[in-house]
Design goal:
Helix content: 25-40%
CATH architecture: 3-Layer(aba) Sandwich
Number of domains: 1
Shape: globular
CATH superfamily: Alkaline Phosphatase, subunit A
Distance between the termini: 51 Å
Radius of gyration: 23 Å
Number of helices: 15
Strand content: 15-25%
Length: 474
């Protein structure tokens, strides 16, 4: 089979529409295409967009949201063996004595919901009644990269599409001036163990590359090669792109490679972004009252606070999925001081984002998620006598995240762990359950959103996933 015939046999509905956009009536159809793809939702969505605040390195649930007085009561004593029976932990605590480590933070109940929130997160505590705390998450991976990959792509190994790519594929774009899927990264300073960020965390996997997330950088142009080279005017650039599009169109017609259409579309997007991105990143019109909510680092490009504000600005301009990844939560031996640093950097901006969206009437149809790839052990990593070197190991068996807006019930806590925060004892939520629920809130059936690759149909949730119906507003 020649390439053109092979492409014709494997062509998807979306690629067919994309090809049609290049023929007669192309300009009109292309302008309608984002809305048409938006109608591919399987049922009425509760959310139009997602902002995912991914806390890379695994925040300690027993220090932040899952209040366990038993830890302080048994501080320094051996962890009961029955709670750890048959469990696999990282090699950093393999074979070591496992002494209970009492929480280094205090907890109080907040709001009408009475949610327990750590004193390390006062701003998050102030919006407790707007949040849905999921305290019964569990996963399969005990190391960072595969666990993060599992959360963001549904598989432990690199190569599958990330959540944002699936949403781009399933729902299309809501604008033609900015990318449908944007990723931004940040990390705290000081003595932290910052995890690496791999491109496949926002990759398209085997989906057409038009669905890949665009990584906004912290320095220089937010997107590489967006500025015209010296001596090239905007009108010259327009002529170059027009001629290049003609050549690419001829190549596509002769070979039938859908990636050629992606190349044309991405060139055009880059051209439009030369105008839209400078406006996006211009904070001069933001009220000081809004800027102050995000904290003192809000104007520092590449900071978590700056990225949270950019997420709101992207969301209100039509970007469907914004993925913020913040590193530094991997506290194996520096829990006593680095956890405070992480909370100082992320607490106010996260809460400000929720308040900002609500003030603009956007929280109702914007799903915001805060959480990492797993939790931390209830037992100590290190020497109990060396307080300054206390830490906690990786813990995939029970941890917490929170969600807000986008059709999620506010002011509730879902799921429970045992008295040590070690195991889930009520309403367990697997990673695939979380993903199925996210897609459901966007109007997508996780069992029907599939893509044929290498002879089988793949989906974000593989062959698993149950929707958390009890956290969804009726």
């Amino acid at each position: 089979m020649n390439p053109a015939q092979e492409y014709s046999a494997l062509q998807t509905r979306r690629q067919f529409f994309s090809k049609g956009a290049m023929g007669l009536g192309g300009a009109a159809l292309a302008s309608m295409l984002p809305d048409a793809l938006g109608e591919l939702a399987h049922y009425a969505p509760k959310a139009k967009r997602v902002i995912y605040l991914f806390q890379s390195g695994a925040p300690s649930h027993v220090e932040l949201f899952d209040h366990k007085p038993k830890l302080r009561e048994m501080h320094g004593q051996s962890m009961p063996a029955e709670f750890l029976q048959g469990k696999r932990f990282s090699t950093m605590t393999k074979g070591s004595d496992r002494f209970v480590l009492g929480s280094i933070s205090d907890f109080k109940q907040h709001g009408e919901s009475g949610a327990y929130v750590s004193n390390l997160m006062p701003h998050t505590a102030s919006i407790a009644d707007k949040l849905c705390f999921v305290k019964s998450m569990h996963t399969t991976q005990v190391n960072h990269a595969p666990a993060t990959t599992f959360f963001l792509t549904g598989g432990e190994r690199a190569g599958r599409p990330s959540i944002g790519a699936w949403l781009s594929y399933g729902l299309g774009s809501m604008n033609d001036e900015l990318p449908t899927f944007v990723a931004m990264t940040s990390r705290s300073g000081g003595d932290n163990c910052g995890q690496l960020f791999y491109d496949y965390y926002w990759g398209n996997g085997f989906l057409p590359s038009v669905h890949q997330g665009v990584n906004f950088r912290s320095g220089g142009d937010p997107v590489l090669y967006m500025s015209n080279p010296p001596g090239i005017s905007q009108s010259t650039r327009r002529k170059q792109l027009d001629e290049l599009a003609k050549l690419n169109q001829k190549h596509y017609e002769s070979v039938g490679d859908a990636e050629t259409l992606t190349r044309i579309a991405q060139y055009e997007m880059a051209y439009r972004m030369q105008t839209s991105v400078p406006e996006l990143t211009d904070l001069s019109q933001e009220p000081e009252s809004v800027l102050s909510m995000y904290g003192p680092k809000v104007k520092e490009k590449g900071s978590y606070a700056y990225n949270c504000l950019m997420a709101r600005r992207l969301a209100e301009r039509g970007t469907r999925f914004v993925q913020i990844m913040h590193a530094g939560w991997d506290q194996h031996s520096n829990l006593n001081y680095q956890l405070q640093t992480q909370c100082d950097d992320t607490d106010a901006p996260s809460a400000a984002l929720i308040k900002d969206l609500e003030m603009r009437g956007m929280l109702e149809d914007t799903l915001v998620i805060w959480g990492g790839e797993f939790g931390r052990t209830p037992f100590l990593q290190g020497n109990i006598a060396e307080e300054k070197r206390w830490g906690r190991d990786h813990h995939p068996y029970a941890f917490s995240l929170w969600m807000a807006g986008g059709g999620v019930k506010p002011g509730i806590s879902y799921g429970e762990t045992d008295e040590f925060g070690c195991n889930v004892v009520k309403d367990p939520v697997h990673v695939h359950d979380f993903q199925a629920t996210l897609l459901h809130l966007l109007g997508l059936d996780h069992e029907r959103l599939t893509y044929r690759f290498q002879g089988r149909r793949f989906r974000l949730t593989d062959v698993h996933g149950h929707i958390m119906k009890d956290i969804i507003q009726s």
